[in-house]
Amino acid sequence: MEAGFFDKVFDVVRQIPHGRISTYGTIAKHIGSPKAARMVGWALNKSSTEKEFVPAHRVVNRKGLLTGKRHFANQNTMREMLESEGVIIIEDQIQNFEELLWYPSLN
DNA sequence: TTAGTGACTGTAG
DNA sequence: GCTACAGCCACTA
Question: Could you list the protein residues whose CB lies below 7 A from any atom in strand B?
Answer without folding.
Answer: A 23-25, 28, 34-35, 37-42, 44-45, 47-48, 56-57, 59, 61-63, 67-72, 78
